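Need residues for this backbone.
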């Protein structure tokens, strides 16, 4: 009987801090005219096209088939030639990305990393249970380490690969330096009133806010109460992942709003009588 051996992997590997905290990294292409209206992004490190609503990669060579999935079945379909135009602009895109052989930074747009998976040292594939790891086709005495994992898509073709833990290791001295810089910057901020007030210099105000009377609506309101209404949820709240879905929804629709219905939306946002 062979016994799987657990190895300790050094935590010296450093992740892209942006992607550890669920923020697009420098290798994430978001603001592109071909992508922004349909909730698509590109990860240039792995050369993959990602659908934010599906949290999975898109087969760029069979683009239309992706929009036959249940998530898109009753929604507006993109232009028929969009896949061809995206591939022409980004010819390196693939639906069969190289399986990472060692932990990589979490990939923004895919499902959030799953914790405590057994990753085989030999094939770098992640397994949830002892039994599934024990029966995977590698050497007779497999070695493994515990890691967070992600997958490019939830299909039999795509397996789990290791990603760097969502709890980044920062040296104590570096952490102290960062905190000191943060508190120093906070102390240097100008004082502000406890309630919202309209500045005397009206020329510095957004003309849209002024004309639509939003400033009058928030004037004399408590700033902290207003900020609490728009603050992102924390991990301790009931819906800690809601912000991810809100981001995907707003990202998928903001381009359409800007190009197709700007006047109508402004009237809906406004407080003046139609």
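Answer:
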């Amino acid at each position: 009987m062979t016994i799987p051996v657990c190895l300790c992997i050094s935590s010296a590997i450093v992740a892209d801090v942006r992607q550890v905290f669920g923020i697009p990294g420098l290798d994430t292409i978001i603001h592109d005219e071909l992508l922004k209206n349909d909730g698509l992004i590109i990860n240039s490190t792995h050369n993959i096209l990602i659908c934010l609503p599906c949290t999975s990669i898109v087969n760029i060579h069979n683009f239309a088939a992706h929009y036959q999935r249940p998530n898109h079945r009753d929604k507006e379909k993109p232009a028929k030639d969009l896949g061809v135009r995206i591939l022409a602009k980004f010819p390196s895109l693939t639906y069969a990305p190289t399986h990472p052989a060692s932990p990589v930074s979490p990939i923004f747009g895919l499902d959030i990393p799953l914790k405590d998976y057994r990753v085989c040292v030999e094939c770098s594939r992640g397994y949830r249970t002892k039994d599934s790891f024990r029966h995977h086709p590698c050497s007779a005495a497999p070695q493994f380490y515990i890691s967070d994992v992600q997958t490019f898509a939830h299909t039999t073709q795509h397996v789990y690969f290791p990603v760097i833990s969502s709890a980044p290791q920062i040296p104590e001295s570096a952490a102290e330096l960062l905190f000191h810089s943060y508190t120093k910057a906070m102390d240097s901020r100008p004082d502000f009133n406890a309630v919202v007030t309209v500045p005397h210099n009206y020329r510095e105000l957004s003309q849209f806010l002024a004309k639509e009377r939003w400033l009058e609506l928030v004037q004399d309101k408590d700033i902290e109460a207003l900020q609490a209404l728009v603050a992102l949820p924390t991990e301790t709240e009931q819906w800690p992942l809601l912000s991810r879905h809100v981001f995907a929804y707003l990202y998928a629709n903001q381009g359409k709003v800007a190009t197709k219905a700007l006047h109508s939306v402004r009237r809906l946002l406004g407080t003046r009588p139609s």
